[in-house]
Amino acid sequence: MSELIGRFIDHLAIAGRSPHTLAAYRADLDMLADHLEPLQAENAQPNDLRQALTRLRASGLNSRSIARRLSSWRQFYLWLLRSGQRHDDPSGSLRAPKRDKLLPKALPVDGAAALLDRIEGDDALSARDRAIFELIYSCGLRLSETVGLNMDDVDFSDQLLRIRGKGGKERLSPIGAVAMARLRDWLAQRQAPKEEPALFLGRHGRRLGGRQIEKRLRDWAIKTGAERHVHPHMLRHSFASHLLQSSGDLRAVQELLGHANLSSTQIYTSLDFQHLAKTYDNAHPRARKRRAPTDEDTGAE
User: Fold this and answer.
1) Known catalytic residue at 233
2) Which one of the listed residues 182, 236, 237, 242 is annotated catalytic?
3) Is 11 one of the annotated active-site residues of the chain?
4) Which residue of 4, 19, 159, 224 sits 20 to 30 Å from the alpha carbon of 149, by its own alpha carbon?
């Protein structure tokens, strides 16, 4: 099989594939050869490849990696079929596993507070940034929703925010006290042409773009010593996770996030369970590892 793999890699090289891609194909096909041994590639049947996939799953590979390997195998057998070295494609009936549902990344409560509290500066841009990020965290905003906010979306008397979400659906969200104060600070310095309705503006007095918001948050996270990359959607995830931890009200979190289906919100219960499991491990007397008794424990002097 190694000879066939070599010829296939040569075929890909002639087609202009990059060295990195060639190396990935070779690694995936070498792995297949190991699984099929002593069977030859040209004699492999669908069940043989299915067993190879089963071994990959059993080895602990995630669904994304398995799908990539299966894609390499399919390209290999398609080449064998087209070049007349096989009369069928044993990989045609195989299905890649469903992608693992990745948990959203949220900041811990103290981490979110530390980031937001350390955005300092007396200039208008710093005031704007504090208002943006506090509002995202306070209301669980998507980046597109933040960009699309207008001045008349803020109800200062009732402290409510009108949000235009996916599909043009509108929702109302309470604005927290800190975010409200940051908004007032920003509006005291906001300068824009009268016809500009946008709540958040760039340097030239026009609506601020999503890329600019992402860059500003990334830069502030670096300045404030954050230990990981922070992006606006992480503040939305943090809003949902922290609210669910405190309230346990999944339906309310669904409404505040603007999710059409409860299943989209239920992923945050996994984050909440991780928090509860950690609390259990730290607090339950039978969850922690037992330590050796000391003289003080036994009353010995």
Assistant:
1) yes
2) 236
3) no
4) 224
6 close to 13: Cβ distance less than 8 angstroms: no
CATH 1.10.443.10 domain position(s) in the chain: 109-283
The reported pTM is: 0.58
Nearest to residue 144, comparing CAs of 219, 209, 239, 240? 209
236 tagged catalytic: yes
Q: How far apart are alpha carbons 257 and 237 in whole angstroms?
A: 10
Point out the catalytic residue in the list 142, 190, 237, 242. 142
Bridge partners (DSSP) of residue 172 are 162
17 is catalytic: no
Give the separation between CA 211 and CA 226, rounded to whole angstroms.
Answer: 20
- How far, in whole angstroms, is CA 30 from its chain's centroid? 32
Q: Which of 7, 99, 166, 288 is catalytic?
A: 166
Beta bridge partners of 171: 163
d(CA 268, CA 244): 8
Indicate whether 291 pLDDT > 80. no
Q: Fill in the amino acid letter for 274.
A: Q
2-82 CATH fold: DNA polymerase; domain 1 (1.10.150)
Please tell me the CATH superfamily of domain 109-283, with its number.
Answer: Intergrase catalytic core (1.10.443.10)
Is 25 annotated in the active site?
A: no
Helical ranges in 37-91 per DSSP H: 46-58, 63-82
Query: How many angstroms separate the first and last alpha carbons of the chain?
Result: 74
Give the three-state DSSP class for 218: helix
Q: How many CB atoms lie within 10 A of CB 112?
A: 20
Could you list the beta-strand ranges (E) of the chain: 154-155, 160-164, 170-174
pLDDT in tens, 155-191: 999 999 999 988 788 999 999 999 999 999 999 999 8
